[in-house]
Amino acid sequence: MSPTALHPAHLSTADTQPGGGPLMFQRCRWCHTASYRRVLCPACGCGDLDEERSAGLGTVRSIKVVRRAAAAPQAVAVVELEEGVRVRSTVIGGRCGADAVFVGDRVEVTEAPGSSPNHPVFRLSGSPLAR
Ligand SMILES: [Zn+2]
Predict the structure, then answer these.
(1) What is the CATH number of the domain that holds 48?
(2) What is the pLDDT of residues 52-61, one digit of tens each?
């Protein structure tokens, strides 16, 4: 056991991809209900879903800070996209870390380490890290 654990707190490398990667969601061909990572439409149960690209902008609807030993706290949030879909994700970019992310905060999707189609990473809109 060495105490030389890396500190991931300051990821200063500029990942300045504006808008990040494409975030996809599904829209029912019949009732136009938007959904995320579903096989069947949650409203009418049909399987005719079209892939659509999200603008990647949303609002934090619930937030939970996950703390693990030897790692920075993570803000795990449910983000409601402008398209009306709720996505479970991680939010970064709070000035004071994960504790500075609140319900109602505006966020945008970003391509950060650990981001995946199943679990996208958002950052706070207008945070200093966003530029
Ligand atoms: Zn439907």
Answers:
(1) 2.40.50.840
(2) 999 999 999 9
